[in-house]
Write a structure and sequence with these properties.
About 25% of the residues lie in helices and about 35% in strands. It is α+β, with helices and mostly antiparallel strands. The chain has 2 domains: about 40 residues; about 140 residues, Immunoglobulin-like, CATH 2.60.40.1240. Strand 1 and strand 2 form a beta hairpin. It starts with 8 loop residues before the first helix and ends in a 5-residue tail after the last strand.
Length: about 250
C-alpha cells in the first residue's frame, strides 16, 4: 500500500494551521478544565467547612436549657441527652418545717398565750363517727387574737397540724375534702366559717378547721403554728390542744 503526500506548500500550511488550531483548542480546553476543577474543589471545600460550622451552630441553637433551681445552674441538653444530668423527680425532697421551740399546751376551752398571740379552742366535735374507709371526720373551732404590731395571715390548711396518739397524721388529715364537706353540713346553721384570712394587729379571727383521723384513734392533738411558713418570722411558736376522741359527742 502506497501513501502519497501532497507537496503543495499551501496545502501543507493549511494542514499545519488546522493541527495547531486543534492542539490549541485542546490545550485551552485543558486549561479551562483545570480552572474548573480548581473552582469546583474550592466550592466543595467551602461547603464542607460551612456544613461543619452550621452543624455546630444548629446544635447549640436547638439545644434545650434545663434550669435546676436547686443548684441555680443550667444544664445544656443537646442531641446526646445521655451526657446531660437531669434531676430525678423522685429524688426531690421536701423539707418539713422544724418543730417550734416554744410550745404551750391546753385542751378544749383553754386559751393559750405567747408571743403576742392568744389562741382559744372553743369547740371540737365529730361529724361522722365511722366512714366506709374506717376513718372519723371531725372539726375544731378556734379563735385567734393578734396583739402583735404586724398582721398575721391564717390558713387552715397550712398553719395547722393534726397528731394522732402522738404521731403526725400528715397533710392528708387536714386537707380531707370529705371532712370539710361534713363540717360545712354540720355548721351550716351557724355563723362559723372556714378559718382562713387575716388577723389584723389588735384584732381576732374565728373559724373552723376540719380533719380526718383513723376510726380507732384515741388522743387527738390540734397544733397551731402561726409562723410555720413565714418569710419574716422564725417558726418558734406552737399552740397544742390535746383531747380524747372518746370525750367528744
Amino acid at each position: 500500500m502506497k501513501i502519497f503526500i501532497r507537496s503543495n506548500p499551501d496545502y501543507i500550511k493549511s494542514r499545519r494551521f488546522m493541527l495547531l488550531f486543534l492542539y490549541g483548542g485542546i490545550f485551552e480546553n485543558m486549561k479551562s478544565f483545570r480552572k474548573l476543577s480548581v473552582i469546583l474543589s474550592a466550592i466543595l471545600i467551602s461547603a464542607s467547612l460551612m456544613t461543619g460550622c452550621n452543624g455546630k451552630d444548629d446544635s447549640s441553637s436547638n439545644s434545650i436549657v434545663y434550669y435546676d433551681s436547686s443548684s441555680s445552674s443550667g444544664a445544656m441538653l443537646g442531641d446526646d441527652s445521655s451526657s446531660a444530668s437531669v434531676p430525678d423527680a423522685a429524688a426531690q425532697t421536701v423539707t418539713e418545717a422544724a418543730p417550734p421551740v416554744n410550745s404551750v399546751d391546753g385542751t378544749i376551752g383553754d386559751t393559750l398565750e405567747q408571743g403576742g398571740i392568744s389562741v382559744t379552742l372553743e369547740d371540737a366535735a365529730i361529724t361522722v363517727e365511722k366512714t366506709a374507709d374506717n376513718t372519723t371526720l371531725m372539726y375544731a373551732v378556734l379563735n385567734i387574737k393578734n396583739t402583735t404590731e404586724a398582721d398575721i395571715e391564717v390558713n387552715r390548711l397550712s398553719d395547722f397540724t393534726i397528731s394522732v396518739d402522738g404521731k403526725d397524721a400528715g397533710m392528708s388529715a387536714i386537707t380531707s375534702s370529705t371532712a370539710n364537706s361534713a363540717a360545712v353540713q354540720k355548721l351550716r346553721d351557724t355563723d362559723v366559717e372556714k378559718l382562713s384570712g387575716t388577723a389584723a394587729s389588735g384584732n381576732s379571727i374565728k373559724g373552723y378547721i376540719s380533719f380526718e383521723v383513723p376510726e380507732n384513734a384515741s388522743e387527738i392533738t390540734v397544733t397551731y403554728l402561726p409562723y410555720k411558713y413565714s418569710d419574716t418570722q422564725e417558726n418558734t411558736l406552737g399552740y397544742n390542744f390535746n383531747f380524747n376522741k372518746s370525750d367528744l359527742k
